[in-house]
């Protein structure tokens, strides 16, 4: 009985720590805390896994380099494409929830973070005419002795590398993201995520996030989202 109690406590503590820890990395903290002076990634300012000074790299457009990674190897990104790339970078570096999807074999990586189809479609639309020389941003670069990225292949439009938004979201960052059928139990990298996260962090959402949109969790999420939109609409009118 004691062995069961110890095991159960360990499982609970592991789950709790996972929710309140950050990914390992040169810009991440051990656990999230407020960062009121962030210049970018302000979606996570109340509870951030990155320090405010990291966001200085993203504060001025065009973004040229973040840590050792150059964003302009095929020319500067368009403003619309850059904005989506920033959202992904901010989530990975700063979100207090990113570690919920920590890769089982790499504590500095994420796996199967559920993205909304609409987000991926909009991201692809924003970047399709920009140029790129890799398909997988995590593995396809040639790295020099300083760890900086260089093209191994010629630059071509995003639209020649990825078939659509789903293809881009599920390949551009390796296994990091997946596109879900749900329109609510998924992330859009904006304030609406506060609704989805509550369901995605629950134990039951492991199954519900991949179930049909008629699930009770999906309906509950949609109802909360409608109330959120209505409230925000009333605030903007005032």
From TrEMBL:
One of its GO terms (molecular function) is signaling receptor activity. It holds the Pfam family Folate_rec. The keyword Mitochondrion does not apply. GO terms for cellular component: external side of plasma membrane. Residues 1-17 form the signal peptide. Residues 21-188 form the Folate receptor-like domain. Keywords: Disulfide bond, Signal. The keyword Cytoplasm does not apply. Belongs to the folate receptor family. This is Riboflavin-binding protein.
